[in-house]
Amino acid sequence: SINLAQHITALPCRAIKYRSMVKRQKEKQYQSTRELRASVRSDARGRERKLPFHCCALTLTPFQHPVCNASGIIFENAVIVPFLLKHKVDPVAGQTMSSNDLIKLNMEKDEEGRWECPVLNKPFSDHTKIVAIRNGSEASVYSWQAYKELNLKAKNMYDLILGHKFTKKDVIVLNDPNDDELNNKRDINNFHHIRNSRLIEASNPNANIQKSVTAMRVMEKLSSKKRTTETASSADPEKKKPKIGIITSEMVTGIQLTSGKTSGSFTSSSMAVSNTNESREATQEEILQAQFAVMRYRKRKGYVTLHTNMGNIGLELHCDIAPRTCTNFFGLAEAGRYDGSKFHRLIPSFMIQGGKGEPDRSFWGEPFVDEFDDRLKHDIEGTLSMANAGPKTNKRQFFLTFGPAPHLDRKHSVFGKIVDGIEILREMKKVRTGKKDRPIHEITIAKVSVLDNPVKEAEELEKTRLEKLILQDGETRKKKSTVALGRKQYVKETKNISLQTSKSSQIPVVGKYLPKSMQKSDKLETESRTSKSSRLPPPPKKTQFGDFSGW
Would residue 345 show up in a list of annotated catalytic residues for this protein? Predict the structure, then answer.
């Protein structure tokens, strides 16, 4: 009876506990996707987007040369000045503004590249109160803590670094997390150029493209170069004439290269059938190779004189052994690219290097390959060789050796030697050097005089020969172009025969590329197929080919 009474009294408590458990289960402990999206949208409408302290208010990217206005808004100097010259409006407040209203900020960075207070050496953050003490058109930037302790409390109204006297009106607050008015100004949503970006983009279609100063200079150079090229092409009507290509069979190298249409038609079903090997047009590199072959055949040396501030040096260039390197040197010398350049590197008892200049490019604009030959080595005093940064990186710099240097063989291209003025080279050897092996007393090349240029002669000979070939009759050139590997090709056109079965048999026609005169008649083919079969193979046919059906 006692247990029954306890059970009866416990029933209401269990019922209350069960109802409270059901109620808690109905209360969700999470947000649905719809509720989450709605809360994010409501927060985004009222959320401010405060500009970080280290970012420009116009580009919204980190600044490198900061300037500010009287309100304490910081900009990048290279960006805000062109903007004000064009629009004459404050990009943040929308009021009239000029470049004279800008204040240059003198700020310092720590070892990690962060802006810091020059007095406390503490890096600035978005939660740091920062002030600028103005002195005319410039201002020094400090943290509020340094200004408060060392200026306000000490009643010392002098700049902490520069030492000039100032008043409280000269103090500009750049960042204060507790100043609602300043934070409202630094809110990106309230920026004038953000709210009126469509009007600004309409006036300047390239305004949304962020360019550095270097990129803007490069673009200006490219546009001016393009205008110069267009003006020159319009002024010279001969350049508009189409050039006649030089086929490879006309080159002196004797290398005949075809267009590859015949081999392609045999191996590809998408190409039209062709049975003529036509020589293709020669590339610029192949034309240069032909010119170099002429220079090797003529076996002529070139001669130049280096007019330096210490005396003249006569050089002999091996145009017959290193024609490409000599062509580069002669081209740069005749263009005056070496005039006024310096010998910028001197290593005693080793070599002296020169020819450096702007632009640091070869005669063709691109680095060219090395030229090695066992007849040309770094084995004597006064050897002329090319300076490089590795294989196939020759440009315009060269060096003269003070003695044998066999460790440079097959690493640097030898293309000449001193034949006159070796005593001038020995005087250069005595010049003292400073940092990075630079001579203390400048050694300059005033001018390079070309005495004998076999490159020009070979170029003129090859040009004259090619002009004569180009002036030939069109039919003659066409016949030459249809010759490959020294043999005339069959040029008779053939009909496009599809691989269909003939009426007399079900054997496909395979030899469709052979001329009709070399094919058997249908009658002979029928007789050969209807002949009695034998255990022995038929005798070999010695006279002519069939259509390969018996193979």
Answer: yes
